[in-house]
Predict the structure.
Amino acid sequence: MNAPLPPDNAEIARLIIANALDYAIITLDRIGNITSWSPGAERIFGYSADEIIGKPSSMLFVAADEAAGAHLLEMDVAREHGRAEDSRWHSRKDGQRFWGNGVMMVLTDGPHSGFLKILRDETKSKLADQQRVLLLHELNHRIKNTLATVQSIAENTLRASSVDPAT
């Protein structure tokens, strides 16, 4: 009985991209236009491949980052260092924001030179972090108020007892 042949590298790559639904896997040309779009990218951003391929990657950024040229800076950093990591707010097709954490890498193989961007939606984690910071600030505020009250009571008690607090 013959063992099944292993799939070739192209088939393995296709399977990885098709099944990595929690990750947007996107390729860009040298100037930042989208050249490929994974099912995970469709799931995260809301655009179908037909809607987005050929469009500028800047449209995936929130308006302020798009206006500031964040997409160009990300490509420049990737060119200079081979990769550029980013954690920032991005825009979905419906205009909703989400916190994306990703990396952009340079692709240098012949006709496919450009960039590979892999990104994950980490909005839940970002919102949980913001909530933790808010709660810590509130706790610090309450502790300071409690300490101020205790300090005031101690000073008033010392004053009423005619005790010199300096001794």
Observations:
- Helices lie at 9-19, 39-45, 49-52, 63-68, 70-81, 123-160.
- Strands lie at 23-28, 34-37, 83-91, 97-107, 114-121.
